Structure formats: C-alpha cells, structure tokens
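Example (one chain per record):
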Amino acid sequence: MCYDSWVKGVAPDTSLLRTIYCLYFAFCILSSGAASAQTPAPPIVAVDVQQEGEPVKDPLVLSLLQTRPGMPLSIADVRESITHLISLTRYEDVQVYQDPVPGGVRLRYVLVPVHTVDRLEFRGTLGIPEDTLRRIVVQRFGNAPVASRAEEVARALQTVYRERGYVQAAITPRIEITHKPDRATMVLDINAGPRPVIGEIDTNSEDPADRAVLAGSGIAVGQLYDPAAIDAQLEKYQAALRARGFYEAQASHSADLESAAGGGAGATVHVMIDRGPHVSVAFSGDPLPEAERDRLVPIRAEASADEDLLEDSARAIEDYFRARGYRDATAMYTREETPGELTIRFTISRGARYVIDSFAIDGNTSIPASELASIVRLKAGEPFVQAQVDAAVVGIRGLYRARGFTRATVMPSVATSFASVRANPVTADRTAFERMRLSTGCFTAIDVMLMMRPQRRSFMPGSTARVSSTTLVRF
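Predicted structure:
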C-alpha cells in the first residue's frame, strides 16, 4: 500500500519517516559512545607541584593529591585534589595543567599562596602621630586588615584627617607582597597637607559667662585649627559646670572648613554650650546616711537626671533599707522644676524593722534538718531580709533535686500579725501547715517556719518599743 502510494505521487507517511530518522540517529550516538568508551584514559606519568616557580616538597601537601603516577587520568581525582589543597587555607588558587609526554601525561599543580597582611606602614607627611593613626586602624579593622579592605582603611583615615582640620589630606593605599615567607604589607602613603587657620569663633550660649570659655587657652582667631585642643578645653569647662550642679551640661564644637578648603579667610569654629537646669537633690521622710547618698543616687557621677536613673535610684534606696530589715521600705521621687532650677526630691518611708526570733524546718523526711539549716542561713536576732528567704528557697529546691527528688516543691508565704502572741503559735501553725504538706500527694514538700518580731517607733519622740507579732515564712 505504501509503495503504491509513492509510485502514484501520494505524499508519504510523515510519522513513519520521523520514527525511522530517530532510530537512525540513536544508533549513531550509541555507536559513537561505544567507540569513545573503548578509548582508555591516558596514564599519569609524573605529578609536579609548584609554588611561585619552585617545586613543593611539603609531605602534607603531597599527601592530599589523589592523582599519582601510574594511575589513569581522572577528572574527579583532579577536582578532589584541588578541594583538599584549598581546604588548607594556604592557597587562594590552585591551577592544574596537563602536558603530553611519552607514555601518557604529566600533571602540573600550580599553587598560588595567600599573602596575609601582617604589617601596617604609614609613609609620607603624616601630620598626625603615627601611634594615633595605628590605634584608630587597629580599633576598627584589627591588627592585620585584609588586603581587600585597603580602600576602606584609606577612607576611614580620610575622615579622621578631615575631623582634625586637614581638609586637603591625600591617602593612597597599596599592598606590597613579600616571599619566603609569603606575607604582605599594607602601605598607606599620606600627604596631610596644610591645616587651616581659625578665621572666626562663634559661641552659642544663653549665659554670657560662657562666651569666655576659650579665653586663656591659646585658641584664638589666627591660630591653626586644632580640634583636639578645642575639645580638651571644652571638656574641662563641661566638668567645671557639672561640679557646680549643672549635671546635664554639654559643651561641643563644630567647624566650617569649606571656606578654608576653597582658599578663603579661614575656618569658622562654632562653640555650643548648653548648661541645662541647675539640679539639686533633696531627701525627706526617714533619714538616709550622707555617706550612701551619692552611691544610691548617682546623679552627679552619671551627669544625668533622666527618668531611668531616678527609677533605679528609688529602687536602690528601697533595697538598701530592706537589706537591713525594713522589708516594707518605700522610696518615691518627684521633680520640682522652676526656671533654671530642678529639684529631685526623694521621700523615704522605712516602716517597721523586722528581726528574726527563730525558725524551724518541717516536712524534711529525706534530708536532715541540720543539712537544710546550713542552706537557709537565717539566725535569730538578725534582720529579716526577703532576698535571703528567696535564696533559701532556691538552695533547698536545688539540694533535693540533686538527690533525685525532681518533683520537690518549696512554697514560701509570709503572714504578719501585730496582735498579741497566742499561747502556742508555733504548734498551731505547724498543724495547719502539716495538713497542707500532706495534701501535696506525690510531691515532696518542705516547710520552714520563721518567727519574727518587728521593731516599731512609738508615739513618743526618741523612744522605740517592740511590738510582739508572729510572722510565718512557709517554704
């Protein structure tokens, strides 16, 4: 049928032709692959390792090569050898060459070593002491900046020079490579250029007395602009203001160097002084020892009277009294502001002072009470401090868990009564607490009972009286 159609001029079946052509091409590809598979890989006759034109004889390096004489050449082995060599972090590149020789091929490994920067040199007209430049670079980039950051180092120093008045400073970085050992030196060629003179000094302050801040310091119009000297003088003046009670005083300066850089009359120095309000600290209520005030309220040392510092100071005052048995001590502060004046007033209420009469431990069926008592560290006659009770809770719980009682619980609670002492308060409290302990089920509960008495001021000035009370601290 197909033959007749062709003879008569009918179009052939295209799908049949596509199938025949595909089978033909597939046969050609298979034949070519089989022929190439039959061609063996050339053997490796020699392997040479070179670094900067000299042979490498390091046993560690040679042991990492997966291609050895006598083995057939394999691309996979070459790649694995390169990976091993790079992993040493000694070389930034490994190049492999194949040279035909009688009987096979010769492989050449060319190692490009890493030249680590281990020196930093400053050359030229520095203008700024070399020790200062080196310290700035080390603080920002480390002792040995990598070669790729040379331009970044130059830009950082350019900023430093400009801040010190050298508006025309030129810095050119370069890397000098040395061999045997393979090292590099980062060289910074510096031309500081001229420093501008001071053409004008503008002082911005509300108090006319501040306009003489630079008087007698040698900093004046016509002198070379030295920002370090100006900052040193302003720091002294700022410290003097804070010593007089202006704890938020700020003194700084800036300079307009554009006119000096363009060949104008000189640099314009702007001095800014802000005294802030005069701050005083007052205390009312119960007395706070004079020797502790600056430590607990460090407004002078911090040179600040912000809210965070005042809140921390109030907590420090409360902690100071609570550590001495005044567990109910409170300290509150207010800000009393008038024009140019700020008074910070702390109102202190110590409350009653509590001392420990005695304590007992109950519910400890697995660990002796004497061992637990060494953890509690509470003694009769000492002030009652809540922090010590909290530390005892942590210590007892940790001891039980270390002995394998992972579900041991310590339940502290404090109940205080200023009424008369009952006939046998300890027995009654133990009985009530024993029921609580038995109701804990599979948990192990430890009860620590603490008897305290408060010392309160009487209504008569200058005298004190002890009011008997019972406080039970339950663990």
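Caption: DSSP finds 14 helices and 19 strands in the chain.
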